[in-house]
Amino acid sequence: MKQRKKTTSTMNWIPPISLSPICFFFFFLLPIVAHGLKDQTSATMRLELIHRHDPRVFQLHGKKQSPLDKFERVKELAHRDMVRYARRTNLETFDMPMHAGRDLGAGVYFVQVKVGTPFQRFWLIADTGSDLTWFNCNYKPQNFTLRRKRRSQSRRRMFSPQRSRTFQPVTCSSQECKVDLSHLGSLQACPNTSAPCLYDFRYLDGSGAQGLFGRDTFTVGLTDGRKGKLKDMVIGCTRSMIEGPTVSKKIDGLLGLGLSEDTFVAKAASQYGGKFSYCLVDHLSHKNISNFLTFGSTISKASLLREIHTTPLVVVSPNYGLNVVGISIGGQFLRIPQIVWDFNANGGVILDSGTSLTLLARPAYLAVIEALVKPLDLVEKMKAFDPFEFCYSSKGFDENLAPRLAFHFEGGARFEPPVKSYVIDVTPEQKCIGIIGVDSPGPSIIGNIMQQNHLWEFDLVHKTVQFAPSPC
Q1: How do the pLDDT tens digits run along the chain, 472 residues long?
Q2: How do the residues of the chain divide into helix, strand and coil, expressed in percent and rounded to 5?
Q3: Is 205 one of the annotated active-site residues of the chain?
Q4: Active-site option among 95, 127, 131, 262
Q5: Domain boundaries 94-295, corresponding CATH code
Q6: Which CATH class is domain 305-469?
Q7: Which is deepest, 30, 63, 246, 252, by most CB within 10 Å?
Q8: How far apart are CA 21 and CA 16, in angstroms?
Q9: Residue ranges matching CATH 2.40.70.10 in the chain
Q10: Phi/psi of residue 23, each to 5°?
Q11: In 317-384, at which residue ranges do the beta strands (DSSP E only) sit?
C-alpha cells in the first residue's frame, strides 16, 4: 500500500500444452536421403522433421542436452508462440524477467530493469503498492545533507548517474519538486536554485529510502525482438536506506508499480496499450525459474485460458482495489459484515505484489480462521511464531483436509487459490496459515503468496482486472 506500507509479465501465462500441435516453426528439418527409384519421374527427397528440443539439435552446437527441464522447455515454446503472434498482429508489447526472492531470503518478487544510457542493470522489488521507483545510487551532488549508511553501501550494485547521458536531476526550486513530487516524499529544503530535489520516502513497516530525484531512460525488450525506450522517467537516486522488512541491504531498489502520476506503470502503460500483467511463480521457486512482468496487449486469452474471470478495478491511488462480495470456505459463505469490504468506510481489499502474506481486517480474519482451523484438527499442531497464529507439521500433511477458500468479487468473479497459497510452507517441517489479522476499520490486502500461480492482468483503460489459474 502506497508509501505507508507493509508488514513484512502479459506475464506470459503458460497453458497446459500438447507438443503435437505446436506449429511447424518450432521444429527442425534434417535431411535423411534422396531416394532414386527405378522410375526417375517418381524420385523423391525425404526430410526428417524433428523437434527443436531434440538432443541432436543441441549436439550440433556441442551440447549433450537442453539446459532446460521439460516444463521450462514448454514455457519457452509458448513464449515463442506469443512473440510470433505479436509480430503478425503488429502489437507492441514488452516484458521484463521476474522471479521469486527465495534465494535472497526475501518474500517478494524481483524484476530486472535497464536504466540509463548506456543502460545499467538492476534487480528491483516489483511492488504494486508503491509509486516511487528507486535504486541505490552513488551520485555526489553538492549540498547533499542526508545521512548515509556507509556500512552496507559497498556491497550493493549502484546506479551511477554520471555514466548516463540521459540522466537529469530534478532541482529543488522547480514546480515539479515543490508540488508534483510531494506525494513521493519530496522535501522543501532548497539551499540554492540548482540544488537537487531531495526525498524521504517511508513505508508502513518503518523502513525507507532517502536520496534525490532525477529523470532517465529505461530500455525494454519488445516481444518482437526490438528495443524500446521509456524516456524521461522519474527515478529516485537513493543514497541512504532505513532498513526494515521492505528495505534491506540485499536489494538494489524498488520498482514502483502503483497507480499515480509519474510512476513506472503510468509511463509504460501510456506507451503500450494501457495494460500490464504478471504471473507469480511459486514463492519457493529458485532464481533460475522465472516469468515476466508484461506491458501491452497480449495474445487472445480466449484461446489460452480455460478459466478467466473479470472484475472492476477500484483505483485507490496508488493501490489496485477490488470490490469483494464475500469469502467462502468449503463452499459456504462466511458471515462477515459488508462494511469490511467498503472503501468508503476505510475498508476494501487491495492486491499488493509487495506484501507477502494476506492481511484481513479483524472481523473477516476471525471468520476465516474459525472455518479453516476446525477441519485441520486432525493434523499435528506445532508451536506458532510471530506473525503466525496456527502452524502444523508438514509430515503427512494432506491438502485434502484443508477446506477450499474463495474470494468472491463484483461481477461474479471467483478467486480460488490453491491450498499451498494460504497454508504455506514456512520451514521444511512446518506449515502455517499464511493469513494475518489487522485492525479494523482498515483495508485488507491480498498478498503475493495468495496471488501465486495465477495470471493477473490490469486494464487501466477499461478499469478491469482479469485473472486465471496458471502454472506461470
Answers
A1: 544 444 443 333 333 323 233 232 333 333 333 333 344 444 544 555 555 556 665 565 565 555 555 545 554 554 455 444 444 444 578 889 999 988 887 889 999 999 999 999 999 999 999 999 999 999 875 544 444 444 444 456 899 999 999 999 999 999 999 999 999 999 999 999 999 999 999 988 889 999 999 999 999 988 888 899 999 999 999 999 988 888 888 889 999 999 888 789 998 988 888 999 999 999 988 888 888 899 986 544 444 556 889 999 999 989 999 999 999 999 999 999 999 999 999 999 999 999 999 999 999 999 999 999 999 988 999 999 999 999 999 998 999 999 999 999 999 999 999 999 999 999 999 999 999 999 999 999 999 999 999 999 999 999 999 999 988 8
A2: 20, 35, 45
A3: no
A4: 127
A5: 2.40.70.10
A6: mainly beta
A7: 246
A8: 12
A9: 94-295, 305-469
A10: -65, 165
A11: 319-322, 324-329, 332-333, 349-351, 358-361, 381-382
Is the entire prediction scored with pTM above 0.85?
Answer: no
Which amino acid, residue 304? L
Residues 6+ apart with CB under 8 A from 472: 11, 13, 14, 279, 280, 281, 282, 291, 452, 453, 455
In the set 95, 131, 252, 352, the catalytic residue is 352
Distances (CA, A) of 261 to 209, 236, 267: 19, 15, 8
Reply yes or no on whether 262 is catalytic: no
